[in-house]
Amino acid sequence: EHTVIKDCLEAGMDDCLTKPVRSDDLDETIREWLGQVSYDPSFMAPERNKRRFPPEDMRGILDENQIQETMLYIGQESLRDMYGHFMMDAQTHLGAIQHGKVLSVAELHHLGTSSSYMGLWRIKRICDSMITYLDADGKNTANAEMLHELADEFRGGLEELNKYMFKSGLIEKT
């Protein structure tokens, strides 16, 4: 165990937990790394988690309440950073989709998760659906119709997200 930790630290990692991970060790490590960052444990409480996935019949492209909840949790500056990273990733993924590339499971998972934090639930739902289209070799076999649906949701969602971020004063018009 000591050798693994030493190798990880020498390789440039900031910290390391070895398997099997014990919950006490994980809690202690998280507390050490959070340091003075304020954390509201009620953020993930079951009663608050109920609204994390809106009803299937949600019509809007953008869930503004989700963006506000994310901002309350991570702060305005971090939300701006998250938005910037999301927009760069989104443009890359949208370009790949428009060129017919089928995204990997890791890409779909990352895209779906970041979309949910930015209030773009329909993109998350499509990504989650596409993940289920895996063959025995782990290759995604989603069809072209699903890729077009994802691209359409992306274009509309990014436009709505930009409008909201500008309207809210979180970004400046470029």
Keywords:
mainly alpha; globular; 0% strand
Largest sheet data: none
Proportion of residues in extended strands? under 5%
SSE order: HHHHHHHH
Poorly predicted spans: 36-52
Please give the radius of gyration in angstroms: 19 Å
Structural class: mainly alpha
Distance between the termini: 51 Å
E-strand count: 0
Q: Please state the average pLDDT score.
A: 76
**Helix percentage range:** 55-70%
Count the DSSP helices.
Answer: 8
The general outline is globular
Give an account of the 3D structure.
The chain has 8 helices and no strands. The protein is mainly alpha-helical and 174 residues long. Helix 7 packs antiparallel against helix 8. It is globular, with a radius of gyration of 19 Å.
Note the topology.
Blueprint: H1 2-10, H2 23-34, H3 46-49, H4 64-74, H5 76-98, H6 105-117, H7 121-131, H8 144-167
Give a quick summary of the entry.
The protein has 174 residues and is mainly α. It is 61% helix and 0% strand.
